[in-house]
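Before going further, it is useful to explain how the protein records used in this thesis are read. An example of such a record is reproduced below.

***
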Amino acid sequence: MNDRQLPPQSIEAEMSILGGILIDNGAIDIVHRIITTEDFYRESHRQIFTAMDDLTDRNEPVDIVTLSVVLKSAGKLEAVGGGAYLQTLVEYVPTSANIAYYCKTVAARAAERRLILNAQAAIGIIYDGGAIVDAVSKLEAAIQPVVRHNSEPVGMTQSCRELVKKIEHRSENRGKIQGIPYGIEELDAATSGMHRGELIIIAGRPSMGKSALAGNILDSVCSSGGTGQLYSMEMPRADIMDRLAAGKGIKYQNIRNGHLQDVEWAKLTKAISDIHNWKLFIDDTPAISLRDLRTKARRQKRDGLDLLLVDYLQLMALPGKENRTQEIGQISRGLKQLARELDVPVIALSQLSRSVDSRPDKRPLMSDLRDSGEIEQDGDVVIFPFRAAAYCQKCKDRVNDSTHNYREHQAKAEIIIEKQRAGERNISIPVCWMGEYQKFVSI
C-alpha cells in the first residue's frame, strides 16, 4: 500500500449500522456480537456508537433527540456533523434487517487495517535495528484478532447433550486418569490429572522441591510422548539437564561434581538416551516478558504443545509497570488467559512470602503467596510441596539419636492441594522425597 492509498474501509456499511440502530434499538445487540467500537474506521462513527452504548446502558431510547443531547453534553455533537448528520444516518438505510451483513463488512475491513498497520510496524522495527522477537510479536498481534472467538449463550438442550457424552466417556475410562498425569499416583488420584486450560500454581519456600516437582511432571508428560515447553528464569539450561538426568536414578551430587561410578555412567548413558527422545523445549531467557513468552508458546502450539511450565512467576518481567503487585497480578492473569487460548495446562512455579518462616506451624497457606492475591484467584489448582525437615535443626546437624532418624525425617514430605476448582481442597498427600535424585515418589 503506497502513501496515497486509503486504509481498507467501508463508510457506507458503517453508516448503515448506525442508521439501523436508530431505526431499531434492539439491533445494537447484533452489532456487539460481531464488531467493537474500534472496528469503525471513521472517528465520528466511533463517537456516535459510544453515545448509543451509553444510552442503551441507561435503558433510554436511542433516537436523534437523545443522541444529540448525549453528544452535545460531551462536546462532540458538532465534531460528528451535528443533528443534520444524525438525520442523514436515519435516512441512509430503510431497514435494520441487513445489519449483520454490514457488521461483517466492517469487521473484515478492520481486520485488514490491523494486518497492514502491524505488518508496517514489524517492518519498522527491523529497519530500526529492533529485536526480531518484537517484530514477530507485532505480526502475531496482527493475525490473532482476525479470528474472533465470540461465544453465544448455550441452552440446556445442547449443554445436557454434551454432559451425557462427557460422563459416558468418563465411565468408559473409569479407573483411568482423565487429564494429563502428574506422575505421582496419589496426586493424580486426588486431581484426576492436569486438565487443558488450567493454570496450576506450584508454590513453596526455597528448598521445598518446587523445581524437583516440576521435573517430575515434565518426566511424566515427555516420557509418554507429550510435548512440553519449559521457561526457566531461575536456572540455566545446563543445570536443568543435570536435574532431569538425576531424576532417572543417578545421584545429583555425583553428576554435579563428576564423581560417577561405572554403574552410574551406565545409568547416565541410558538416561541421556531416554531424555534425547523427549519433545521438550527449554527457554532459559532471564526475566522473559509475558509478551515474548506468549509469542513463543503460540508458535510452538502450531507444531504441538501439551504442557507449558514457567519457573518461576515472580522472575517474569512486565515492562512499563511500576507497582509490583499489579505487575504480578497481570502476569498471572495473562498466564491463565494463555492456558485457555492454547488449551493446555500451564504450570507456574511461585515463591511464598517469608511470613511462613516466622510462624510456629510452617505449613503454607494460600495467603502466603508472594506479591499478589491475584495468583490465588487466577490459579485453578494451587499445590504446595512441603518438607518439614527443611526447618528441622537436627536434620541440618545430621543428628541420629533415639528420638530422631536423620534419613527417615529427610525422606518425609507431603504435597498439599490447597485449591482445586473441580475437586476437594485442603488435601495432604504423603510422598517420599529422594533428595539425592531431586525427585518425589509415591510412598
Summary: Confidence is low (pLDDT under 50) at residues 145-149. Residues 99-127 form the longest helix (29 residues). The radius of gyration is 28 Å. Residues 179-442 form a domain with the Rossmann fold fold (CATH 3.40.50.300).
